[in-house]
Design goal:
The protein contains four helices and five strands, in the order H-H-H-E-E-E-E-E-H. It has a five-stranded antiparallel β-sheet. It has one domain. With 137 residues, the protein is of the alpha+beta class. Strand 1 and strand 2 form a beta hairpin. The N and C termini lie far apart (31 Å).
Amino acid sequence: MADKKGVFSDEEKAAMRQRSKELAAEAKTARTREQGEKDIQDAISKMKEPDKTLAINVAPNLMPKTWYGSPAYTNKEGKIIVFFQPGEKFGYRYATLGFQEDAHLDEGNMWPTSYALNKISEKEEKQITDLIKKAIS
């Protein structure tokens, strides 16, 4: 998000350049699950701890890809459902697990679309798995 003067940070500019590269690569070739997994593993390998440990694959029914240089997963229509944003990337104190508008998480007039992550225990892993199952239902 641009600052009050409308200037993007170096990290935001880098993320936009990464997204531009991703779009160019997608336009050249059809993405496969194998390519998506490779892209995600490459992105995760560049992360530092604890982000690296937090960026786990809990979305086996979704197509993996990178989105702004971070791990993300799409539905059959190619719409981003869930993404992982490492905290380090933008200088945040926590990583973010986020859901896009095509995730089926709607409950009434208000519902969460992102979650802060500091550590994932079995409890959080189950919560994430349940959220993703609901998101793709």
